[in-house]
Predict the structure.
Amino acid sequence: MTALAERTVGIFGAGKSGVAIARRALDAGYGVAVATSGPAWRTDLVTRVLTPGVRAVDAAELASVAPIVVLAVPLRRLRELPLSTLAGRIVVDIMNYWEPTDGVLPDFASRAHASSLIVRAALPASARLVKTFNHIGYHEMEQLARPSGTVGRVALGVAGDDLDAVATIARFVDDLGFDPVSTGTLADSHCLQPGSPLFGADMEPAAFREALSQLASREVPA
């Protein structure tokens, strides 16, 4: 893979969150490829207007052009993606379970467990999954992004089991304008899901870590 390809991020989905991440990544100097459920030419009609500079590709091709692939589709569509192509890739899970839009998905119904564990089980064994970007709104991804070192920069939680993959995505988060904060393993990533105090909260790193610590202390059996 060339140096240029190493700086390319692939995104499944051209909805609001996918577009917001694509714009931020382009601004940060990344190449961006986007795939949807339709053919590349149809995706191109959308991305040409919403995200000029993005390369539209067919879904089956996306993982071949990007070492990092973002899952930015409704959770109910997870298993419609060409998941087998993600072998060896760092995969970023920004999805949330929303029953009003996803319908009832029994696998994901328990909010006490991390949805990313189920996502990981659906991926090839060599794919390395990282959870982040799911606990802020798509509009905040663009409105709240700030250069590294800026006072008051917003924190984003980053969770994963592969330390190298977590470090890579932490740099990506930083490049896109947020302070990455480790929240532990994928099993711990339920703290970033809907219903958690961290979900939807725009916090600076110190406040985020304090809230994370308080949440962890409440979860420890007496």
